Amino acid sequence: MKKLDIYKNDNYILNDAFDQSVMNLHILKKQNGYKSFVICGCETGDGTTTVAINLAAALASSGWKTVLIDGDMRKKNRYKRLNENVSEGLSDYLMDRVTLENVICETTTENLSYIPCGELIDNPVRLLCSNKMTIARNELSESYDFIIYDMPAVNAAMDAKVIAVNVDATILVSSIGETTKVGLIEAANALKEVKANLIGTIVNKVDMDQYSSFHKDYDYFQNERYAKKNRKND
Question: What is the pTM of this model?
């Protein structure tokens, strides 16, 4: 099978933001042994898939063996970023059509594997609750340092909650100017109701200038601003 091409992000500001996320997940792994994470939006359109792909790629680039799982079996493949040339995936494994090994795809990013969603399923909840899903979780846990689940928005389907209660931690994705305060609260409460381990929120679609104003020294070393300070002290 041809390796799937993972888009490489060269934007320094975005990379800085994901580096902070990688550091936080590394700390959680070191302190608590966390390795499996659900990434899910509060509402549809929050950009969860973009966040999940970039986060998984950043973890892999740090040397961690990582697998990204597309758990959204409700959305058609033509709306997927990585499933265009993939015919089988998670749903096919859960329906006993293929082995788990046969749906794990290699990617162009070293240390990163990918499991596509597979055949479109109208209501995948029963499959996600099945013993086959438990077996998959256990096998992947033995083979990978990090497991990232890209799941549908909490307020759109119950799929994310099903997986969230069986992983180490869950991260919500919200987007500036799109996610409502009510939507964020409802999503967080829905996860807490099932006792999912919600550890925080990644705010997506932040304007670059806005991010720069929040983190004034993010480019301190890249722009050699320390050199200017040193010259003043000469």
Answer: 0.84
